[in-house]
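ugh ok fine here u go
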Amino acid sequence: MKHLCLNCEKADMVRELRDVTVQARGFSAVVPRVDGWFCPNCGEIEFLRKGDGERYDVALRGLAA
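structure:
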């Protein structure tokens, strides 16, 4: 079943479990094992598992601090 990206509306998203790299202010961190829909065109992520979005946010805030 197709899952159109709601951000760019140009690509079918891919359902995967993957390590995601977040970047801010020249630094990066890896958030392991994120379950979600990933857009191959714009990089948008739709988080599926409870807590994955929060882990991503914590990593991003840590880099920005």
